[in-house]
Amino acid sequence: MQAIAFDSYGTLFDVAAVYAALEGRVADPQGFATQWRQKQLEYSTMVSLMDRWQDFWALTGLALDYTAAAQRLALDAGAREEVLGAWHRLPLYADVAPALVRLSAAGPLAILSNGTVAMLEAVLRHNGIQDRFAQVCSADEVRVFKPSPRIYARLPQRLGQPAGEVLFATSNGWDVIGAKAAGLRVAWVNRKGMPLDPLGLEPDYEVPDLLALADRLGV
Ligand code: 2OP
Description:
- This protein is α/β, with parallel strands linked by helices.
- The chain is about 40% helix and about 10% strand.
- The longest helix has 22 residues, at about 30-50.
- (2S)-2-hydroxypropanoic acid (2OP) binds near residues 8 and 115.
């Protein structure tokens, strides 16, 4: 049996879908969504390096405020809440639901995400897949974000398995490198066909989606 853990945003849930909440508010909803995501990740890295914890929900809100200011979008409190709420209603990529059924034949499934427990519970419930996961590990537990080794170390502890026996699947290149540096086995779900960051660490598998990972694992 092999435990498989998944990154959440961009791996299971389509983060680009937040653009729908921006339609009719900005001229380029996709461009806005891209800048918002970049700022969210930048802020999570910054607060980790500075050792000034704020959780991912707070940073997602601050990243929205920055992007709105940069793109001259005025958001009152109600509109801000509505746009932010898109993170609770993100859809699954099409391969995810059937792949989770197959991958659960390999062993217990888990999530390891920078998202808050509340964010993760909401989006899992929205998609009806909360019962698929034996463990949901959030950065909230360690008050530091991936790619800090402290958060990856939680995963084998929670699963009761040695790090080298846990397979972590992520679409995010920085997360591939971080998880490898922390000693996990890694499957890169390279949904966008991007090059690997050349930092001297390589994934154990590279696949275009999670169904291809199930094929590679023979489940
Ligand atoms: C995660 O879900 C932020 O995508 C990253 O941990």
